[in-house]
Amino acid sequence: MASLADIGLAAAINILSAIAFLVAFAILRLQPFNDRVYFPKWYFKGIRNSPTHAGAVRKFFNLDCRTYIRFLNWMPAALRMPELELIDHAGLDSVVYIRIYLLGLKIFVPLTFLAFAVLVPVNWTGGTLEHTRNLTFSDIDKLSISNIASDSNRFWAHVVMSYAFTFWTCYILHNEYKVIASMRLHFLASENRRADQFTVLVRNVPPDPDETVSEHVEHFFCVNHPDHYLTHQVVYNANKLASLVEKKKSLQNWLVYYQNKFERYPKNRPTVKTGLWGMWGNKADAIDHYSSEIEKLTKEEETERERILSDPKSIMPAAFVSFRSRWGAAVCAQTQQSSNPTLWLTEWAPEPRDVYWHNLAIPFVEITIRKLIMAVALFFLTFFFMIPIAFVQSLANLEAIEKVFPFLKELIEADAVKSFIQGFLPGIALKIFLIILPSILMLMSQIEGYTSLSSLERRSAGKYYLFLLVNVFLGSIITGTAFQQLSNFLNQSANNIPKTVGASMPMKATFFISYIMVDGWAGIAAEILRLKPLIVFHLKNTFLVKTDSDREQAMDPGSLEFASSEPRIQLYFLLGFVYSVVTPILLPFICVFFGFSYLVFRHQIINVYNQNYESGATFWPDVHRRIITGLIISHILFMGLLSTKGFGESTPLLVALPVITIWFHIFCKNRFEPAFIKFPLQDAMVKDTLEKATEPTLDLRSYLHDAYIHPVFKDEDFYRSSAIEEEENNPLVATKRNSRLSTPVHSKLGSEFGSENEA
Amino acid sequence: MASLADIGLAAAINILSAIAFLVAFAILRLQPFNDRVYFPKWYFKGIRNSPTHAGAVRKFFNLDCRTYIRFLNWMPAALRMPELELIDHAGLDSVVYIRIYLLGLKIFVPLTFLAFAVLVPVNWTGGTLEHTRNLTFSDIDKLSISNIASDSNRFWAHVVMSYAFTFWTCYILHNEYKVIASMRLHFLASENRRADQFTVLVRNVPPDPDETVSEHVEHFFCVNHPDHYLTHQVVYNANKLASLVEKKKSLQNWLVYYQNKFERYPKNRPTVKTGLWGMWGNKADAIDHYSSEIEKLTKEEETERERILSDPKSIMPAAFVSFRSRWGAAVCAQTQQSSNPTLWLTEWAPEPRDVYWHNLAIPFVEITIRKLIMAVALFFLTFFFMIPIAFVQSLANLEAIEKVFPFLKELIEADAVKSFIQGFLPGIALKIFLIILPSILMLMSQIEGYTSLSSLERRSAGKYYLFLLVNVFLGSIITGTAFQQLSNFLNQSANNIPKTVGASMPMKATFFISYIMVDGWAGIAAEILRLKPLIVFHLKNTFLVKTDSDREQAMDPGSLEFASSEPRIQLYFLLGFVYSVVTPILLPFICVFFGFSYLVFRHQIINVYNQNYESGATFWPDVHRRIITGLIISHILFMGLLSTKGFGESTPLLVALPVITIWFHIFCKNRFEPAFIKFPLQDAMVKDTLEKATEPTLDLRSYLHDAYIHPVFKDEDFYRSSAIEEEENNPLVATKRNSRLSTPVHSKLGSEFGSENEA
């Protein structure tokens, strides 16, 4: 095991590399030509534009030395924006997301102080390791629970601290849940009028022999919500059309690429191979080829559009039903409509950007079956993912390569190459798997049939957390694959599982400390440097971008990746809880991680990420539940550890901890969770009344008219023509579109953040 | 182990004793003076009255010999009433309850045939036991899975049958759930107008400094349900008053008893001791004593009534809020009212008879804490109940008695008495505990804070099921107390638990067969004989009854005891599933139990039980869930058994069974459970529209006016005076009260069932 000095050295290296990243970031971000990579959000808000007033060099490089001196001043800048303004600027989802890091600080900073004040002295003076002969130990071990003799009364300190930590965590968690629930309610209450406030998504509309889906929906809601029903919008199965549009877009990209190429080198007209992946087949003139392809697709698209609108089969048994008031929508979303609970399923409509159109037409029975299959698949993926990877690895060895490609034999046999391949190949399959894992999990969630992007992200995060828990946390403590662990566990006593894990916990502390530094610290530093988007943007900017909208697309930073980053944060919570009692020296590393992450992500959500949708922090119950899970796991492992230490008499005392924690969870769930899934009538009524008083002449029908049409139909003439004519030119819709841009707050902030470059 | 002949003999004995019970029942029920014990339901319906037309002897004894010959014809009579009529006569709860027995038949009769056709021959020709020396075995064992050699391919038959049984069970369960859900919906749809259709129970009304609870409720619902709110009824804390009324009633009973005594023997005026339990203290004239006590209580009652009505503190923060339409009530019951989900909690009001008034005022946090405490208490009760009982037993031994009561020494030392005490005393504490257990569990459910009698019964049933599962089922298979089992289990491998239980399963088959006969068959026969109510009724009738209403009270058979009898049925389901593959010979005994029970309980709900409330079969999801639990337990134990038989390779195949079953459960839950907890708006709208068309002038406000007042206030002048005067003499309320009695169907049935006596 590593000594304190080793850990210090590793920490120093990691800190240095993090600082190197930060310095690189500080320099790169000051260059105007990187501005769109590091401050894309301001461009999207329309507050910043490409610098035009300076000369050619100053357009690309920042030659003002004074700005380099203050290379760390993005940090206070990131912290300066007050929270309310931040919600307005970046949305509630992002703000609540960075509050997870803040929550980590709130929990673990006091825990660190308490643990260093009480447990470290107790452990340090335990003196067991010094008196045991033939044992190598380090200072880290002297600080951990390993230094205390079996059956010593000193363990009472740990038991008491375990209680103190749990109560503190629950106290903070409770406060945070309360704050976030009220933030959400306040956010929903202060929101402007939005289409989803009036709209309910209805699925599984039963087929009717005499009526079309649209008529059936209208009649049903006219009868059963007579005073509240306003209008509805059927859902077309436009999946094929969407893929055509997608394909056309990519072809247009290539066309632009070759046109640019041709402009630059007008002598040789670019050619392309028309076969598979552009690597086989006949050569053809690239520009002509793509132009004709695009033409073909455009026609195909037209036919498909017409087919969708004329064919009744392309209307899915689902609809977005809008109501006269928020009250009416809240009632419909929360009640059961028909006596058959699998028909006329209503749920609050996700906001239009958040809809996952692909899944709107899956019938009830199919969803149940899909969920079963995905649950089984997730189990196998979690516990048996090593089997196919090991198989691929066994194929990808030197002999196999030599057999398939005999001409490579000499090259491979060279020592340097050989050792490189031997060291590299076995890992590559695993690395590739881990990189694509979030996509696999997202695909699984999509198959499960969720209808909004936000719910897809939440479900994927849950799956990823399970994977990390089993394969990273347990897998690191107990060596061996998850499958071996599972079979070991099944053949062990139920009592022995926490014992086995608990007993090996203290020995793995140094491993996890370096894990936190490498994966956590360096990961966050890499996050702010944005190396991949930086390269991709400059490549695209050089080869593809022609118009401003192209450039906007190229610099689009996308959303925060909740599905993959939230479970990683949860891993740090888990490590913190587990080691808070066992090896408190790990806690400062966790605290640094949370603090640094908070800083970086606050900067990122202000300057970089541009959320695709706004769910109003609906993910918080999941975050809360997973933190509670981590806490309970830590209790169980601590019980196991103490019983291997001959301190089993404390077990009855410790059993109370998970019981209390579970009860606390149920309490919080009942108390706060409804705020995230239900819609109080009182609040709806307040907003309705206010609106009626301030805007008595509001034409809601035209406001809602095209809110929920499939994105491929948006801004299409042909769709409009099928809609009611007189509603077309309603000023409200236009107003809403414009109002997104440039409010006073944004311009003020934009100038504040932009000032460094312009100085 | 018992041989087939032994089992046959035991069966014969049990069948004979059951027949003896039945003959006794056949004779007793034909005696007119027992009529009120065996046919009370008809008296409550007002169809039967005490025979008056015959002489003194014929009034008490049935001297018509012909009726004795047909002593078993209650059986076809019980089956004759069609189900729809039965629902009308006995309510949906009772009908669905007896359908549990029918479900047992539907599942286990085909299972029996299949098992006897396939598994019995396979087992019989297994030939292992014959070839093993030094082993005593019986024919029962030759029919069971024990007769098959380790690792034999014959086990495939059992695996395949296990699948067949599971699919059959799921098929039947699915159909049954479907039928009962539609029965419930049909029942609710065809019900007459009832107060609870329009009413919602609102709890946790927040305190308001400026308004009373009543005003606050009215304002809140006027604002948030403006078009639908009609009226409301506050809830008084009348618990003290109710106990006073209860006490007065019991004193009045005693007064009547002594008055009757005095009338019979006018010479000596009865006296009573005024101290504790009437055993100590001064002697006093009994009639005077009770009269004066009653007078005192009446005054106290008056003061308490006035206090409740005048003191604002006696108004609880809860109310029954009624709406103009069923639609409005359905909306309010299913939606969240306030942004704080612990305030303004709404739920569909139980019907007035079903309300458990005592629990209406418990605040949210307290309920959460109470539930935690009760969950912990249930755990200890289930696993550690033997500890206090063993303690009591250790106290109640011979020496202890001799020490406390030295004068009894000689009596006790007599051999006969001594052996009696030694055989009797250790068991008595356990017996008493088992008798009062359902009451303990009911008390625990009451502490948990449920607000309706039906939910209390459902929760108690769940607790009792857990107790039976752990202590009767597992406790019988593995000898030793539940606590010892628990500690054994914790120290065993998770894999080993089903192995241990599974391996000892086949050996316990004969025990469970005799359990089914003694507890099941004889229990049902005793149920129809109603020995305890028979004795109690005649005692009361002799000593207390003076008026007709007294007699009605004395003969009140109460409701079916769902809380204690349903978990017992579940035990038979569990036994059936577990042994269907292992020892199929047990199945016919289960089938006989279900068939016989169905017959008996169909008779009982027609002639005896008088349900206190009608919940519309809301308990079915619980029944379904527990049957599924039994099925899954059987799968796990079968897996354990096969792996001890060296047939572990089938485990992966068998693991699919519980997974499929759990999925099936989730599917059914989503598909059918909403019918039992939610209230479709479509159905509400249909009923509303119909009512508006047929009774456009209905005065709903007066109809609902006193529907939800505490029973102690019912029919009290003082309460009426505080209500609005002009609503008093509304004909609707009176009509409803009268309409309970004598509809054409009832008279027809009454005469049919009554014909035997009158012939």
Automatic annotation (TrEMBL), chains A, B:
GO terms for molecular function: calcium-activated cation channel activity. InterPro entries: Csc1-like, CSC1/OSCA1-like_7TM, CSC1/OSCA1-like_cyt, CSC1/OSCA1-like_N. Residues 9-176 form the CSC1/OSCA1-like N-terminal transmembrane domain. Residues 370-642 form the CSC1/OSCA1-like 7TM region domain. It holds the Pfam family PHM7_cyt. GO terms for cellular component: plasma membrane. Its main location: membrane. It is found in: Membrane. Keywords: Ion channel, Ion transport, Membrane, Transmembrane, Transmembrane helix, Transport. It is a multi-pass membrane protein. Residues 197-359 form the CSC1/OSCA1-like cytosolic domain. The chain crosses the membrane at residues 6-28, 100-120, 155-174, 372-396, 416-443, 464-483, 571-601, 650-668. Residues 728-759 are annotated as: Disordered. Belongs to the CSC1 (TC 1.A.17) family. This is CSC1-like protein At4g02900. It comes from Aristolochia fimbriata (White veined hardy Dutchman's pipe vine). The lineage of its organism: Eukaryota, Viridiplantae, Streptophyta, Embryophyta, Tracheophyta.
